[in-house]
Amino acid sequence: DDERARCVIKSFDYTPPEKPADCQMDNWGSVVVANKDGAGFSCREAPANSGPARVLGYGEKVSASGMTCTSSEQGMTCTSDSTGVGFTVRRASVDFLGD
What's the CA gap between 11 and 21, in Å, rounded? Predict the structure, then answer.
């Protein structure tokens, strides 16, 4: 969206940090977000899409609102074009970049 890059992973093997007490998400750890200032796990469900989710093949990328997301065999990486802050998410782990 205009404020952040958001990646939803349906199936993962990593263990996210302890869920915040005020977090109401059943699938805690499945939504990762980043903007130019920081990255982390989200406690808010992803908003409903107006259509099917866009699938990026390996090597493909998409840019919007100052963020670029690139798909590779190593995972999905989303970073701020201006600061490099972002994340790489894959089934095995999540790495936060530039924080």
Answer: 23
Place 12 in a pLDDT band, splitting at 50, 70 and 90: very high
Higher-confidence position of 42 and 1: 42
Q: Which of 3, 20, 1 is nearest to 29 (CA)?
A: 20
Rounded-to-integer distance, Cα 12 and Cα 20, Å: 19
> Which residues on neighbouring strands pair with residue 40, listed in sequence order?
33
Tracing tokens 């750890």 back to the chain, one arrives at 29
Q: Is the pLDDT of residue 10 over 70?
A: yes
β-bridge partners, 94: 89
Q: pTM for the complete prediction?
A: 0.86
Query: What are the C-alpha distances in Å from 57 to residues 20, 41, 61?
Result: 33, 24, 8
Q: What is the amino acid identity at position 51?
A: G
Q: How far is CA 55 from the centre of its chain?
A: 14
